[in-house]
Design brief:
This protein has 19 helices and no strands. The protein is an all-alpha fold and 303 residues long. The model has no long low-confidence stretch (mean pLDDT 85).
């Protein structure tokens, strides 16, 4: 079998058995780049390329991601900020989430190793204070870098400080939340910390999210808004208090049967499931009366 056929049909084998794996991976990029016009990182060929490299390192994925990052840096001639700009445009999906995380972490580690300050990155990304658009992928990159250097909470506070005099700040929250993916995560994180800065109490946020109107907003919207409220209570009071506060509020508004059904049907759903499982765990600590009946009812529905 010729080398050309191996490259085309079995690219992972071409890389796996190459003496210079990095050179082989870069050669594949050149082959794939001839097949399209536009940004390589936003193309299906980029996904095909990353899969080939990772399959070549099937039992050592970390080494595969290291090679991917080195190849991208060579392709961008070590212009890491331009790489970051293009990388931030990749759409988050089930097919890209792990790759975005692994390469993204290596990119942030590189920025840190080069002692790139957050202010310098903000400027190099072309961002301007009080003119922030939350659907801009460069904002996502900057926010993640601040969070990597400090903490997620600090990253939201830092971004809010860059928007403190922005007249359309609430509209930007809505735009980000509607966009989905990382944009939605940042939009909600900013909104929660903005409410905290405004000194909104938990009751104000409860009514703002219309959690007292489960019949009017519907079950699905109520669940989504409840997740937001628990996150806000977590920011205000910490995890244990947020869960107990949530339980105390909802037990007076819906029946134990409704709550049990809600938990049983959502236990495996990302953040919602984790929140409801925390409520269940809180209930499970109690051995008598209402709590015991509640736990038994959830278990019977889940079995």
């Amino acid at each position: 079998m010729s080398l050309g056929i191996v490259k085309r049909l079995f690219p992972h084998l071409y890389i796996r058995f190459a003496a210079d794996k990095e050179g082989a991976a870069l050669q594949l990029i050149k082959i794939y780049e001839r097949k399209f016009l536009g940004s390589f990182l936003e193309s299906m060929w980029f996904i095909k390329w990353t899969r080939a490299v990772l399959k070549a390192y099937n039992h050592e994925p970390s080494l595969g991601y290291d090679l991917l990052f080195r190849c991208l840096m060579r392709r961008y001639h070590s212009q890491s900020i331009q790489l970051g700009k293009d990388f931030a445009k990749i759409e988050l999906s089930a097919a890209t989430s792990e790759m975005i995380y692994e390469i993204g972490v290596r990119l942030l580690q590189y920025y840190k190793s080069m002692k790139i300050s957050t202010d310098h990155l903000f400027k190099e990304l072309g961002l301007q204070e009080n003119h922030i658009r939350l659907d801009n992928p460069n904002v996502v990159l900057w926010n993640f870098y601040v969070g990597y250097l400090h903490s997620e909470q600090f990253s939201y506070e830092a971004l809010l400080s860059k928007m403190k005099d922005q007249v359309d700040i609430e509209n930007q929250f809505k735009i980000a939340c509607a966009r989905g993916g990382f944009y939605s995560m940042i939009g909600w994180g900013l909104r929660l910390h903005w409410w905290k800065q405004k000194k909104y109490n938990k009751t104000t946020v409860w009514y703002h999210l219309r959690l007292n109107d489960i019949e009017k907003i519907g079950y699905i919207n109520w669940i989504a808004n409840a997740k937001v409220w628990v996150a806000y209570a977590w920011i205000k009071d910490g995890p244990p208090s947020s869960i107990s506060s949530f339980y105390e509020r909802i037990r007076s508004r819906i029946s134990s049967k409704q709550l049990a059904e809600m938990i049983a049907s959502n236990r495996n759903r990302d953040t919602v499931g984790r929140i409801l499982n925390d409520v269940y765990a809180l209930a499970a600590k109690h051995e008598k009366g209402y709590w015991a009946d509640f736990v038994r009812h959830v278990d019977s529905l889940s079995s």
